Amino acid sequence: MKTIAVLAALLAIVLADGSSSHFRRTFNNLHKEPPPPPPSILGRAAKVEVKTITQKLDHYDKDNTKTWQMRYLSNDMHFQSGGPIFIFVGGEWEVSNGYLIGGHMFDMAKEHNGYIQPTENLSTENLKYLDVKQALYDLNHFIETVKKEIPGLEKSKVILTGGSYSATMVTWFQRMFPNVAAGSWASSAPLLAKVNFIEYKEVTGQSIKQMGGEACYNRIENAVAELEHMMDNNRSAEIKALFKLCNTFNPDKTWMYTHFLEQFQTYLRACEEVLRGENDVEGLASYVLKRTYSPKYGCVDSTYVGLVEAMGDTSNSDYMMRQWFYQTCNEYGWYQSSGSKLQPFGSKFPADLYINACRDAYSEAFTNKTIYNNAEETNKYFGGLDPDTSNVYFTHGQLDPWRAMGLQEEGKATIIPEHAHCTDFASISPSDSKEMKASKEKIAELVRIWLNE
Question: Where does the signal peptide begin and end (predicted)?
């Protein structure tokens, strides 16, 4: 069978790295594209083209005729008429050519003589148009458009792939448009909208203990406990000096631990560095400082006010922090709170802190009740952990805290031991664990089945 592979990235905003706001820099590091696989020998010779299609701004309002141009990239080196379309849906990161010229999707496209593309949407001026249903309508329109405009695709089958939030999207696309895609691969997909996401820190703690050992876990837990004790006993000046915090530092509303926590979503070697410190607090401070402080920007603003300012800044479209947080307020929650004692990161991150930020950065309409209701409505519409979709292959890294919001039931999802967030997109390699190799082989076989059903 001949194929065309299309890698569509519908929610990727260009993320610059020169912001003086460490909230933006940290957010960009956490929400960047999963590391693109190395180019294959054939992929190095690929010619990647940039194209656009016209999208409706509002798919709900038939009387709204406003449109925008959606950019996408294409690689036609394998294309032969009549085959299916592979679509990689990008998430909250800057899209690149990486998935067009290497990795497991590229290999599957090569097997079927495919044609590869990712797409990027533009930011909108009005956040009311920014929700996942609109994005899924965009994806559906994209499929319809390429089938009409590219000769040989009129009757092509469709395979979707996504990682992280875009894995959520490819799953929910199957629910909204059940007869459009033949199958989907969802890597690290959170499906359950939940405001008070206590499991994130719990799984992160478990992963630290598993990969870094009890000593690392205990050092972090003890360091955070000591810092909280210092906050509660008027020793803010010491904390400010340790972490090079700005004078606006408020011990009642600080976000400094998040820098350490976020690293563990994809990087678990930090324990070596943390354990090198002379004591618990210095070990943690040394690690955090290297990832937050830069002489270029001066002191580190870890205050609640600084966060709200970063979320509320509408002047810089190069960042999607404001857009993403709006969606969490309006649809998902997913606030990585400290509401559980089964984690080492202390107690300074109640869900209300994030809920208040929704109100202060966007609108007073985002009350506690509203945000919880929004998450509940999302689960009603998309089914939560029971999305009732067919032909979707779910994979999760065992170490990934996001898997707690995903489908993990044996027989319905594959959990890959000792792997983190979205780490299974590379080509099959001798360095793969047996579980990783088996998972990649399984999705390749499922694709063959889906394309021949």
Answer: 1-16
